[in-house]
């Protein structure tokens, strides 16, 4: 019996609530309760035990081999959104179906009474505002802190775990951006409520990858058999890392890496793609790659990731720019995408071309995040 199924069977009196929220409720009771977490690869066998208290609960010990990111036997019950690897193709399709329904919603009250805390340790415009807009459009409320690295108790030395334990007492779901890779996973292990990774340093940005794949499907009309050029800062770009993980779920995809030498895609992504049978190629010729691809995914060179190595930043910036010359070699159906913000890596005259999809891409982030909030808080 899966741990989440066991929790559901123990919580019938609570109504239909997501398993992680049920676990949070139970952990507040005087039971011997072991919370299980799983991200990525298989976990070792663990046990979940809830002891009888009065006439309310009586559950058997359950032996659990692995806890997936959604409940087996239920429709993709998500606990958290932490990394792109946690999704499979069927789950992606289900999320996209919910997102398409969200496109028709201007205002709803389905999340009335729910509170979302946005905890951002790094600057953000699109991600933070789109999450907040998503919550408010669905009738929920928002507790927000911007630049939490300086203007929260983190500046006093408080640990991330203590911050999460505090914030979960005020809210029903946490959306967090952090400067350290792996911070979101630590937060999810600590929290008894859903956690969404809104970017963890140079690690991952799974909700951006979800909206990127959603955008590709909407713009190109398919996800199998496509060619995608990832351009710019591939070493520090968490968006391209997460996108590569998701593209590996589809058939006959080819990925081109176009970047300055100092910010090449890291080997872990290359090894992952190879292990999944995804063809990839490194190239220094943006024009050639652009002529072949369905998607040119441009990124900025991230100055903040270079520290004091300004020489390396100057070496990398401005080498690959999407301009009218690039548009001229692109196929008519192809699109230019960018996670934004941009600096000078896409010239402004590209904006008027119908193949410039980056502002439509940003709008799609609203629908994907509305879908995730709905699924995490209410289920499917």
From TrEMBL:
It catalyses: carbamoyl phosphate + L-aspartate = N-carbamoyl-L-aspartate + phosphate + H(+). Pathway: Pyrimidine metabolism; UMP biosynthesis via de novo pathway; (S)-dihydroorotate from bicarbonate: step 2/3. It is found in: Plastid, Chloroplast. Transmembrane segments: none annotated. Residues 224-375 form the Aspartate/ornithine carbamoyltransferase Asp/Orn-binding domain. The keyword Plastid applies. One of its GO terms (cellular component) is chloroplast. The keyword Plastid applies. GO terms for molecular function: amino acid binding; aspartate carbamoyltransferase activity. Its EC number is 2.1.3.2. Keywords: Allosteric enzyme, Plastid, Pyrimidine biosynthesis, Transferase, Transit peptide. Residues 80-217 form the Aspartate/ornithine carbamoyltransferase carbamoyl-P binding domain. It comes from the Eukaryota. GO terms for biological process: 'de novo' pyrimidine nucleobase biosynthetic process; 'de novo' UMP biosynthetic process; amino acid metabolic process. Catalyzes the condensation of carbamoyl phosphate and aspartate to form carbamoyl aspartate and inorganic phosphate, the committed step in the de novo pyrimidine nucleotide biosynthesis pathway. Homotrimer. PANTHER family: ASPARTATE CARBAMOYLTRANSFERASE (PTHR45753:SF6), ORNITHINE CARBAMOYLTRANSFERASE, MITOCHONDRIAL (PTHR45753). Belongs to the aspartate/ornithine carbamoyltransferase superfamily. ATCase family. This is aspartate carbamoyltransferase. It comes from Arachis hypogaea (Peanut).
């Amino acid at each position: 019996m899966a741990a989440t199924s066991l929790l559901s069977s123990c919580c019938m009196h609570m109504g239909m609530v997501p398993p992680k929220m049920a676990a949070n409720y139970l952990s507040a009771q005087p039971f011997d309760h072991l919370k299980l977490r799983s991200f990525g690869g298989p976990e070792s066998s663990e046990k979940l035990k809830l002891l009888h208290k009065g006439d309310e609960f009586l559950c058997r010990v359950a032996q659990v081999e692995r806890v997936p990111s959604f409940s087996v036997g239920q429709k993709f019950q998500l606990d958290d959104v932490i990394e792109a690897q946690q999704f499979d193709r069927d789950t992606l399709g289900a999320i996209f179906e919910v997102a398409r329904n969200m496109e028709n919603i201007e205002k709803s009250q389905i999340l009335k009474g729910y509170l979302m805390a946005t905890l951002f340790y790094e600057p953000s415009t699109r991600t933070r505002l789109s999450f907040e807009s998503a919550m408010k459009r669905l009738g929920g409320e928002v507790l927000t802190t911007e630049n939490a690295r300086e203007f929260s108790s983190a500046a006093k030395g408080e640990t991330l775990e203590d911050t999460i334990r505090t914030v979960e007492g005020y809210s029903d779901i946490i959306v967090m951006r952090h400067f350290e890779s792996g911070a979101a996973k630590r937060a999810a292990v600590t929290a008894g409520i859903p956690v969404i990774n809104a970017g963890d340093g140079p690690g991952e940005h799974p909700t951006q990858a979800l909206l990127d794949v959603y955008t590709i499907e909407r713009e190109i009309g398919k996800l199998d058999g496509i060619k995608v050029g990832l351009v710019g800062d591939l070493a520090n770009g968490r968006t391209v890392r997460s996108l590569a993980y998701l593209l590996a779920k589809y058939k006959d995809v080819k990925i081109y890496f176009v970047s300055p030498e100092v910010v090449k895609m890291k080997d872990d992504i290359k090894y992952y793609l190879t292990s999944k049978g995804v063809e990839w190629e490194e190239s220094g010729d943006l024009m050639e790659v652009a002529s072949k691809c369905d998607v040119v995914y441009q990124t900025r060179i991230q100055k903040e990731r270079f520290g004091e190595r300004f020489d390396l930043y100057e070496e990398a910036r401005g080498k690959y720019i999407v301009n009218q010359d690039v548009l001229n070699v692109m196929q008519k159906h192809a699109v230019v995408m960018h996670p934004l913000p941009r600096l000078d890596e896409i010239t402004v005259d590209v904006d008027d071309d119908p193949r410039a999809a980056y502002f439509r891409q940003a709008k799609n982030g609203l629908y994907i995040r509305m879908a995730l909030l709905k699924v995490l808080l209410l289920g499917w």
